[in-house]
Design goal:
It contains 25 helices and 30 strands. Strands 8, 9, 10, 11, 12, 13 and 16 form a seven-stranded mixed β-sheet that branches. A four-stranded parallel β-sheet has the order 2-1-22-23, with helices on one face. It has a four-stranded antiparallel β-sheet with strand order 4-3-7-17. β1, α2 (48-66) and β2 (70-72) form a beta-alpha-beta unit. The two termini are 48 Å apart.
């Protein structure tokens, strides 16, 4: 009998599906929107690691399709931004050319997966018909006060020669190129994501997302409760000005013995007296060259005294004001009160510079020794705290903000770690920011009817490194007239970050050819939001947080009637080789092209899922493909052995069929996809055993197997479905339903071991008593062993073990 010819069979069914589409929107079916995080079109192409997420999403989409739903399963390209431009620079080719070539190549590779993608919905963030709406969103944010311009020190990558958002800095280095990040003071466009901080935090409870991702977003937003406290400057040029600090521990105010300002704080340079001015100015400059991440790393603290003092408002004592780079201007107020007796960082600073350390919390109300280390227990009784002595610190922590308000030197407040989004990039390959700078009217948005503001064609697109985009050198593009007053004006020359298009692209898929609006209300109401979103956990903060922000804004201006983009989220793990993430530089890339050629698309799809739990990283092993391919051939053999026979279903076959449905559906619904594949193998083996005894298996059981297999190995399933007399397509067969009562076996097979070796297999009633099972077992081995039985063990429904001596 011929083996499974994957090349011929897969070609046959791909041609059939092209001529007879299986996912047709008849306007009556319930919709299901399953989406992959769309890829950046890398010049390296796809490897088997990329396949994993695409196979997971396609299997889930086909599952919904068989259940009778119209499945929205589109694909597109995240093609603007640093990665594409850096690739173009490295290969000395214009990014528009390299991006188009890479999209074409990867699209061909993705088609090998034979996923259910609807290519009529395809989007590309570099298409002017798409980024017209990216610019439209920016204009609307500008009109609503959420897009604003600001000059301040930003993270600067000297290699990519552009500014970076805080989220794009990883361990002090550029997320994309790995270069150490410095600081540069630049004019920047910002998006006021902080206006949505509370909603972004609270609405996490609505989402069926992994708890890990919710926790990461919660920590990034970083909500805390505390108080702002006013410390009045005691002397010098800033006398009587207030230094406002934010603290989550206002109960420790009596223990504040010094203050520290961020070097960028507006008062930092002004406070310095003549004696300390030179040292302060040098420290401020040195700090400006470091990234925030570098400054926050746990290392020896540095600082400089300003020569100024401020008044602790709770006790009237003068406290010295220092500068240190471990305080960041964009967290809290950029100034902190320091309680060294109860904070390790403040303690180290105080010890280094000989500053007072006064404990104000102790476990029992007695004095506490802080001569060697800080006392960092959060709760206890107050000491050295005037009228607060003896109070429980936990209770005082709640009441202190109200007391401070009543005394008039501060207020209770809520703070967030989340900062506004740095939205400008000093690069060429991005969406032009649709703003005109007019000397009379200020910043004016390009009228929406004039969008898209197209990215001009240029020969020289490399970053300048000066803080200006390459667009600034194109006078014919920069010089324009003000849309408001008609006076000579200049265009904004910075471009948007790579996240701009990806923050809303999922909305466009369902109405990708609409040139009148971002998405029609009718289609938004009918097809959105996304039901299942699948991609890597590396996007937990950046892309997912930005997408939630954009969706909430678009909800607020009436574009959509929902405020969360992705109802469910699944993060797949990476596929590694030799313990490392696959990459060309490591020489450990496995090409899917070779696997498809040698084993077929279905085999690769199955192995991608079989390797391990889909949410965990997995190690690639070529031998695994052989095992999956053996399964395919064994199932194909079962079909071939049974297709020309009219076999009536036995009770055993019916039981196996219902157990198969139950096991696959239960595992599939819990996203245990690796055990789904192993379940197919187990049940196939069981059916092969039945076929040996019965001469084959009934067609209904094999057709059922084919339906269940279809989301995972669509070509094999379609072939089996038709071999067993199925009509139309397996994808219109409907998901089978199991009857729990039919999964109960009347009889079971029990192996009989003698001294650890199997000597027989007996068939007994499922509810057979222990004594009867042992009696039947002993009869079965009679004459096969010598000696006396000295021990009898029966593990119910599993095994009989007899010890003979």
């Amino acid at each position: 009998m011929a083996n499974y010819n994957h090349q011929a069979i897969e070609k046959k069914w791909q041609e059939y599906w092209n001529e007879n589409p299986i996912n047709v929107n008849d306007g009556k079916k319930e919709k299901y929107y399953c989406l992959d995080m769309f890829p950046y079109p890398s010049g390296s192409g796809l490897h088997v690691g990329h396949w994993r997420g695409y196979v997971i999403s396609d299997a889930w989409s086909r599952y919904q399709l068989i259940k009778g739903k119209y499945v929205i399963h589109p694909m597109g390209w995240d093609a603007f931004g640093l990665p594409a431009e850096n690739y173009a620079i490295k290969n000395h080719v214009h990014p528009s050319v390299s991006t188009a070539e890479n999209v074409k190549n990867i699209k061909n590779q993705i088609k090998q997966i034979n996923a259910l993608y609807d290519w009529d919905m395809e989007v590309n963030t570099t298409d002017p018909d798409f980024y017209k709406w990216t610019q439209w969103i920016f204009v609307k944010m500008f009109e609503n006060g959420l897009a604003y311009e600001k000059e301040f020190p930003i993270n600067w990558c000297p290699s990519c020669k552009t500014g970076l958002a805080n989220e794009e800095v990883v361990d002090g280095c550029c997320e994309r190129c790995g270069s150490p990040v410095t600081k540069k003071k630049l004019r920047q466009w910002m998006l006021k994501i902080t206006a949505y901080a509370e909603r972004l935090l609270n609405d996490l409870d609505k989402l069926e997302w992994p708890e890990k991702v919710k926790k990461m977003q919660t920590e990034w937003i970083g909500k805390s409760y505390g108080a702002e406290v006013d410390f009045k400057v005691a002397d010098g040029p800033c006398k009587d000005e207030n230094i406002v600090v934010y603290t989550t521990r206002p109960d420790t105010l009596y223990g504040a013995t010094f203050m520290v300002l961020a070097p960028e704080h507006p008062l930092a340079a002004k406070l310095c007296d003549d004696e300390h001015r030179e040292a302060c100015e040098k420290y401020i400059y040195d700090a400006s060259m470091k990234s925030n991440v570098d400054r926050m790393q746990d290392k020896e603290k540095t600082g400089v005294f300003t020569g100024a003092y401020a008044i602790n408002p709770i006790n009237g004592k003068k406290v010295p004001v220092w500068l240190s780079d471990y305080v960041l201007v964009d967290y809290g107020t950029g100034a902190i009160m320091c309680v060294p007796a109860h904070d390790d960082r403040d303690y180290a600073f105080a010890k280094k510079f000989g500053l007072d350390i006064i404990p104000v919390i102790s476990p029992d109300g007695e004095d506490v020794d802080v001569s060697e280390k800080a006392y960092t227990e959060a709760q206890g009784k107050m000491i050295n705290s005037g009228e607060w002595n003896g109070m429980e610190s936990a209770e005082l922590k709640k009441n202190a903000p109200h007391i401070i308000e009543e005394k008039g030197f501060g207020k209770k407040t809520v703070n967030y770690k989340l900062r506004d989004w740095v939205f400008s990039r000093q690069r060429y390959w991005g969406e032009p920011i649709p703003i005109v700078h007019c000397p009379h009217c200020g910043n004016v948005a390009v009228p929406v009817e004039e969008l898209p503001l197209r990215l001009p064609d240029v020969d020289k697109y490399e970053p300048t490194g000066t803080g200006e985009s390459p667009l600034a050198a194109i006078d014919s593009w920069v010089n324009c007239t003000c849309p408001k007053c008609g006076a000579p004006a200049k265009r904004e020359t910075n471009t948007m970050p790579q996240w701009a298009g990806s923050s809303w692209y999922f909305l466009r898929y369902v109405d990708s050819h609409n040139d009148k609006e971002l998405v029609s209300k009718e289609k938004a109401d009918k097809y959105l939001p996304v039901d299942m979103y699948i991609g890597g956990v590396e996007h937990a903060v950046l892309h997912l947080l930005y997408s939630r922000f954009y969706t909430k804004f678009l909800h607020d201006i009436g574009v959509v009637d929902f405020d969360e983009p992705f109802t469910k989220l699944f993060n797949q793990g990476m596929i590694c080789k030799n313990g490392n993430k696959m990459s060309k530089s490591k020489g450990n890339v496995v090409s899917p092209d070779d696997m498809v050629r040698d084993y077929g698309c279905d085999a690769l799809r199955l192995y991608e899922l079989f390797m391990g739990p889909p949410e965990l990283d997995a190690e690639w092993d070529d031998r695994g493909m052989d095992g999956v391919y053996r399964f395919i051939n064994r199932f194909y053999k079962l079909c071939q052995d049974s297709k020309d026979k009219d076999i009536e279903a036995t009770k055993e076959m019916i039981t196996e069929r219902h157990k198969l449905i139950r096991d696959i559906e239960t595992r599939f619904d819990s996203f245990s996809l690796n055990t789904v594949v192993s379940g197919f193998m187990e049940h196939n083996n069981a059916l092969l055993d039945i076929a040996k005894r019965e001469g084959g298996v009934d067609k209904e059981t094999i057709r059922t197997f084919a339906i269940l297999l279809a989301p995972f190995a669509p070509h094999l399933a379609e072939e089996a479905w038709h071999e067993m007399g199925g009509t139309d397509t397996v994808f219109k067969a409907g998901w089978p339903v199991y009857d729990e009562s039919q999964t109960v076996e009347d009889t079971i097979k029990v192996p009989v071991q003698v001294n650890g070796k199997v000597k027989a297999v007996i068939e007994v009633a499922a509810d057979c008593a222990k004594e009867e099972v042992l009696s039947i077992a002993k009869e079965a081995i009679a004459g096969k062993v010598n000696g006396d039985i000295v021990k009898e063990i029966y593990v119910p429904k599993k095994i009989v073990n007899l010890v003979v001596k």
